[in-house]
Amino acid sequence: MTSTVPSAVEHADEQQPPITMFGPDFPYAYDDFLAHPAGLGQVPATEHGSEVAVIGGGLSGIVAAYELMKMGLKPVVYEADRIGGRLRTVGFEGCDPSLTAEMGAMRFPPSSTALQHYIDLVGLRTRPFPNPLSAATPSTVVDLKGESHYAETAADLPQVYRDVAAAWNKCLEEGADFSDMNRAMRERDVPRIREIWSRLVEKLDNQTFYGFLCDSEAFRSFRHREIFGQVGFGTGGWDTDFPNSILEILRVVYTEADDHHRGIVGGSQQLPLRLWEREPEKIVHWAQGTSLRSLHVNGEPRPAVTRLHRAAGNRITVTDANGDIRTYRAAVFTAQSWMLLSKIACDDSLFPIDHWTAIERTHYMESSKLFVPVDRPFWLDRDEKTGRDVMSMTLTDRMTRGTYLLDDGPDRPAVICLSYTWCDDSLKWLPLSAHERMEVMLKSLGEIYPQVDIRKHIIGNPVTVSWENEPYFMGAFKANLPGHYRYQRRLFTHFMQDRLPDGKRGIFLAGDDISWTAGWAEGAVQTALNAVWGVMHHFGGETDRTNPGPGDVYDEIAPVELPED
Questions:
Q1: Which listed site, 84, 188, 214, 347, has its alpha carbon 20 to 30 Å from 31?
Q2: Residues 516, 522: Cα–Cα separation, whole Å
Q3: How many Cβ atoms sit within 10 Å of the Cβ of residue 117?
Q4: Distance between CA 497 and CA 104 in Å, rounded?
């Protein structure tokens, strides 16, 4: 396993079917949909060339635009900042251009099968990401309450960590039918998935992650809960998620979203950028050699959207930052949903009132990172006295929380993510500049590694991000609070517009915060594909009967509907 505290099921049988992030709320096989030779569907020839506004040039928006273009529609992409959204890769001024820092998404699980389709499509390579105790990580140090433990495998940690691992396994098994759900998801046994999940949604919608732990006899020890919060599973500590709905955490562990991560060689932002440039081999209406870039003036998206309103004939009118006003039969909104409340002037008539409520109640988590370039991966040097690596991937209760070591070979410059934090831990950094943050981080790490002079290896200025301070994001990703299931259901199912009044149709929500698995690029892709199906249906199109889309099978696998009264 790749975690400091392993998940409930150890993979003794590596021959079992692979798992995918296609459930449990909406167990639709997006990877099969994408792989089918019939394609995603078609619109009537009379609609070819019709413009569709796509608001937001992150991964969800670019995937939606790319697939709509292939159907013969004309996506018009609006982007306030840069193509990529939270797939944001930056360099270090004055350093080797191969040195990059992932300011947003940086690690992707194999269960992200729809995402992997596009990674393969544009010819990107991936490699294992050095999470705590993963095979790609030479060593890990867990530093809690001033006491450090060096480990190359989980077996090297003290017994208390194994006790915490056993408590987590037991908690999941007894409180969330983990093995049964894991098996059902691997076998794509939709009736069994729905049976288990329906019961758990009704039972656990009002429960926090922390409350779920406290309700388990296995976690009766506060010390065990504290350790679990600080070192967690998969990517490290999860105590910043303790106030969130346990359903959010179960989605992660059921789909193994926090396991066996891989990073994209050269940076994740290449994915949307390559899709923007890509000329599909199979395309309808448009000439061979057409790309999203070629459909836009000067190869650039249109600027930020400043107003959205409905016009006669139930059309969607978009005003941009240049003052240009255009009206569309359909629009896909993939930007952060709070933008509809703050940066964009909107008519109330855009969405039903209960959808507005869901947008308003969406809960976002803060997140910050800071990276520095270094001359080489000096952490692989061996301490002459101990024989250990002089520095390791580090999990700590100090300000830095998680420190990741990223290299591309022993003789090449490398990168350290000095700190990756969420929520309150992220807010502690907010008032500080990049250099001020670096100084605090170096001090904290110096207390863990007193014999290591990290500073002497730094070869460039730090780069940092606090997503809560980014004007077009206002947070890193959605995380539902207890009682928010109904809100998320409204947002995710919005693409099924036959169920909406005529005057509320034509604009489609997508993006990772619309998905059930926010914070994962897979959710951005899946909701983009939902929106593509919705736009196709809106224009009178249909899928091939041998490759039904998410809307075609919706009634069979619709998310659990909890009573409103």
A1: 84
A2: 10
A3: 16
A4: 32
Quote the pLDDT of residue 231. Answer: 86
- H helix or E strand, kind and range, residue 178: helix 178-186
Q: Tell me if the pTM is above 0.70.
A: yes
Rounded-to-integer distance, Cα 479 and Cα 481, Å: 7
3-17, 347-361, 437-451: the lowest-pLDDT one: 3-17
Q: Which amino acid is at 274?
A: R
Q: Report which of 130, 105, 131, 132 is spatially closest to residue 119, judged by C-alpha positions.
A: 105
What mean pLDDT comes out for the span 295-303? 97
Question: How many CB atoms sit inside 10 A of residue 311's CB?
Answer: 12
Report residue 131 as tokens: 């999470």
Identify which of 365, 419, 368 has the alpha carbon closest to the alpha carbon of residue 393: 419
User: What are the tens digits of pLDDT across the range 309-318?
Assistant: 999 988 999 9
Q: Supply the pLDDT for residue 12.
A: 37
| Amino acid identity, position 146 | G
Task: Please compute, for residue 483, the number of CA atoms within 13 A of its CA located in the half-sphere on the CB side.
Answer: 4
Whether the CB-CB separation of 521 and 105 falls below 8 Å is answered with yes
Sheet strands side by side (includes 305-311): 325-328, 315-320, 305-311, 345-346
Residues sharing a CB contact under 8 Å with residue 24, sequence separation 6 or more, in sequence order? 181, 185, 193, 194, 196, 197, 250, 251, 254
Alpha helices in 458-520 (DSSP H): 485-492
Mind listing the pLDDT tens digit for each residue in 379-397? 999 999 999 999 999 999 9
Do 347 and 354 form a contact (C-beta atoms < 8 A)?
no
Spell out the long-range contacts of 344-350 with Cβ–Cβ below 8 A and sequence spacing 24 or more: 344/305, 344/306, 344/307, 344/308, 345/306, 345/307, 345/308, 345/309, 346/307, 346/308, 346/309, 347/308, 347/309, 347/310, 349/309, 349/310, 349/503, 349/504, 350/308, 350/309, 350/310, 350/316, 350/504, 350/507
pLDDT at 15 exceeding the cut of 90: no
Amino acid at 326: R
Measured between alpha carbons, how far is 324 from 303 in angstroms, rounded to an integer?
10
What is the distance between the alpha carbons of residues 181 and 194, in angstroms, rounded to a whole number? 10
Q: Is the CB of residue 272 less than 8 Å from the CB of residue 138?
A: no
Both structure tokens of 462 = 């730090």
Q: Is 127 helix (H, G, I), strand (E, B) or coil?
A: strand
